[in-house]
Structures are given as C-alpha cells and as structure tokens.
Amino acid sequence: RILRIGLVASLAVIGAGVLIEETSTTSLHRRSLGGGSFPHGMAAVAHGVASGSGPAVVDVGLALLVCTPIAAVFAAVIAWRRRGDVRMAAVGTAVVGVLGLSCALAIIGM
C-alpha cells in the first residue's frame, strides 16, 4: 500500500513538474537557445520549487520516488516490532540505516 501511494504521489509531482516546464515561457526560450538544466543541491531545488521551476518540481518527485521504498521498509520494521519478531525488526532496522546513510551521503555529495 505504501509503495502504491508513493508511486502515485511521485508520478503526480513529476507530471506537474513536466507540465510546469512545458507551459512556461522561459522553457520555450531555453529550448530555442539549446540550454536549460536541472538544479543541483537541496537549496537550489527548494529555491526552484519556490519560484515555480518545472525541473525543480521534477526533482522533488524523483526524491519522493526514491524515498518510497525506504518508507515501506520502515513501516515493515514497525509491523515486525509490534508482532514481536525481533530478528526481522533488527534486519529491517539495519536496512533502513544503510538506506538512510546512502541518502545522506548522496545529499552531501560523496
């Protein structure tokens, strides 16, 4: 269920970003010049979303897509703990830790 919700939400955000980009006048100007790029870094994405940049909105949708399986594993850890399955909860916690570490390293650019 979490995977389905995350997929639909991320596709909606990505679709909104593509729609924003395709309907903006700056997009037409950039394409005529052969330029344009996606924002790099969290601050640039936040600034881009605040200013209505389509590529920045697409980046947020992609981040949601990446976070969806992490949320699913986290929900499974909670379920395993509630059921008393300590071994699976420990394995799931380790997986969430590794995924979180890899995301943190990607954010800081390593």
Count of alpha/pi helices: 5
Strand composition percent: under 5%
Morphology: elongated
Average pLDDT taken over every residue: 84
Total number of beta strands: 0
Low-confidence stretches: none
User: What is the N-to-C order of secondary-structure elements (H for helix, E for strand)?
Assistant: HHHHH
Helix content: over 70%
Q: What distance lies between the first and last C-alpha atoms, to the nearest angstrom?
A: 32 Å
Question: What is the CA-based Rg, rounded?
Answer: 18 Å
Largest sheet: none
Structural class: mainly alpha
Description:
This protein has 110 residues and is an all-alpha fold. 85% of the residues lie in helices and 0% in strands. The protein has 5 helices and no strands. Helix 4 (54-83) runs antiparallel to helix 5 (86-108). It is elongated. The model has no long low-confidence stretch (mean pLDDT 84).
Structural key phrases:
single chain; 110 residues; mainly alpha; elongated
Short description:
The protein has 110 residues and is mainly α. 85% of the residues lie in helices and 0% in strands.
Give the topology, please.
Elements: H1 2-23, H2 25-33, H3 42-50, H4 54-83, H5 86-108
Helix pairs in contact: 1-4, 3-4, 4-5
